[in-house]
Every structure is written in structure tokens, then in C-alpha cells.
Design a protein that fits this description.
- By secondary structure, the chain is of the alpha/beta class.
- Helix content is 40%, strand content 30%.
- The strands form 2 sheets. It has a 5-stranded parallel β-sheet with strand order 1-3-5-9-7, with helices on one face.
Length: 235
Amino acid sequence: MRNEKRGGSAAGQMVVGLGVIAIGILFLLDNLGIIEFDYAFQLWPVIFILAGILKYTQSTSSGGRAAGGIFIALGTVLLLKGLGFIYVSWRVLAPLLMIAAGLLVVFKSTRERKETVSGMLDKDAGQDSYVNLTALMGGIERRVYTQDFRGGEITSIMGGCELDLRQASMRGEAVLNVFTMWGGIEIKVPDDWTVSLEGTPLLGGFSEKTSAPRDNGKRLIIRGVALMGGVDVRN
């Protein structure tokens, strides 16, 4: 299962890389006068599509994949609107975005609770072993004390999330998927954890300021997307 998720993550990053290369080639040819690409400046919604692809391929839950699908759909609509293929006024589009965001929160709060109970945690794991945090136009702080941390997901959209794992522990390796857009995520980890960042910044950034542990027996892998936002990991 872990190898399958790594394969999906690599495929998603490959798609994003090819998309960025294609856009760069179009801009280059336009600047050189080889082709006339009057709509080049209308390609900015592609950022949402690429972020959605990464979110969908890297997510471990149906709620995360639903969020990725929403971003892909949003980017596609905005791209077609900018290129003149469809017409959707912002008076209609803005309420639809609010409805989609609300449905996403409801879906995540119901569906992922069932998945956590039925499949993601076994009988020996506590409720804090798997975290699922979502901040939408607000802030959330969470402190975890479990001694068997197994990873989870953090989503921050126009908000902020702070996850404090300094009192927690793990057995071997855990994967934490993150996604932030116009927001920030801060993760605090114990001194004996090794942190491996595998995130993709899109007009955003990932920052890791942890101390080097004595051994690599406990490893936290952080994957995800920072779209016009930031992810900060420290002790």
C-alpha cells in the first residue's frame, strides 16, 4: 500500500512537472515571436489544476481526493472562462465556491471519521494516532500525545493549522499529507524524529528547521502542496 501511494505521488508530480514545462514553452515561443499566443496571461488557473492533481494523487482519504477534484474542477472552469469558451459571472461562481467549500467540510467530517474507525486505525491504536485537520478561513491548533503516531492529513485554505507532536512518539515511519492555499501550516516534532520533506511548492514554500537526531529510527515523511502558502516544520 505504501509503495502504491509513492507511485501515485510520483505520477502526480510528473504530471505537474510536464504541465509547468508546457506552459513555459508556450510563454517562450510567444516572447520569441514564433507563435502568437494572446491568451498566455489567462493560463493562471492552471495552478489550481496542478495543485488539485497533486492533492488527489497524494491523499490517503476520500475527503482529500474530493478536495483535489474540487480544485481540478475550479481550475478548469476558470481556465475555460478566461479563454472565452464559457461564460460564468463571479456573482454565480463565488456562491458556488462557498457551497463547494461547505460540502467539502461536511464530507470530510463524516466520511473520514468512518474510514478512520473502519480501516486506518486498528484496535490497538488510539484516536490520536491518525490526525485529520481542516482549517477553512480560520485557525486550528492541535496537540497530540499518542505514543503510536501513524500520520494523517492537514488541509488549510485561507487559514492556519498548528500541529504539536513534541509529546508524541512513533514506531518506525509515518506519512503526513499537507495541503495549504493562501494559508499556513506549522508542525512541531520531537528532537528524536527525522523529517523528510517531499512537498511541492507552487508560489509557496516548505521550510524544515529541525535538529539532526542521533539515529533515524523514527521518520516523519511530509508530502503535499503549498499553493501561495507555507509549511513550516520545526522542533
